[in-house]
Amino acid sequence: MSQIAINTSQNVNINFNIASVGERMLAFIIDLLIRVAYVVLVLYLFFTIFDLGYLLRGLDEWSVMAVYIVLTFPVYIYPVVLESLMEGQTPGKKLMKIKVVKIDGYQASFGDYMIRWVFRLIDVSFAGAVGLISMIISKNNQRLGDIASGTAVISLKNNINISHTILENIREDYVPSFPQVIALSDNDMRIIKDNYTKALKVDDRQIISRLSDKIKSILKLEIDPTKMTEKQFINVIIKDYNYYTGKDN
């Protein structure tokens, strides 16, 4: 399985597995079935349950088409809305455990999802051949919408253990030191721990120092270096976060 190195804000590369063409196609099919089910349900309610078909009588072709577009409008905006609300996923992507991310390490924005959605019109042309060919020949299995928005679709099926996640073993009698950590998000903590773990492996004190300074800056903390080293500080921050958010093992 091919990988992509995403550079974090701390200038450290983290490797992710690229979602395969097959995974993306299955996610697309799942989402397509959901949209088809929605259309069937809406039309059934409109014509059978509420018996509103008479409203279309006497209307010209364009007016009838407009009514159908209004009824089925959620189907058209399904990808961009759900990817925005679900942080890069749709129900199909979630079931397949894949996700849209920015290749520059930042969180994808609504604008990025919108660009992907607009280019979808091109990607699905010729029965989807354009997008399929683009994914096959591009380096990171990117369709045209991904290339234009600077995104890629990664797999979340990596084989990981507790040391690769934000989870930490903490004692039942553990006493936290920095309640300010609740200002951090899961994604912030995941980046902190990934970078810290990598820096420890190669004893990169510069990265550890920069990471420590960044955390202190974000949380507005002043730490006496004679009482707590940078390594001790980051370790405490990780444990405190797990303590306050209940993410203990």
Written account of the structure:
The protein is built from 10 helices and 4 strands. With 249 residues, the protein is mainly α. The chain has 2 domains: 3-155, no CATH class; 162-246, no CATH class. The chain has a two-stranded antiparallel ribbon with strand order 1-2. It has a two-stranded antiparallel ribbon with strand order 3-4. Helix 3 (73-85) packs across helix 5, helix 8 runs antiparallel to helix 9 (205-219) and helix 9 crosses helix 10. The longest helix has 29 residues, at 21-49.
Defining key terms:
single chain; 249 residues; mainly alpha; two-stranded antiparallel sheet; 10 helices; 4 strands; transmembrane helix
Computed structural class: mainly alpha
Biggest sheet features: 2 strands, antiparallel
| Count of discrete domains | 2
Radius of gyration: 24 Å
Q: How many beta-strand segments?
A: 4
Give the N-terminus to C-terminus distance in angstroms. 30 Å
Fraction of helical residues: 40-55%
Strand content: 5-15%
Shape: elongated
Give the assembly state of these chains: single chain
Name the strands of the widest sheet in spatial order. Answer: 1-2
Low-confidence stretches: 159-165
Mean pLDDT: 86
Tally of individual helices:
10
Order of helices and strands: EEHHHHEHHHEHHH
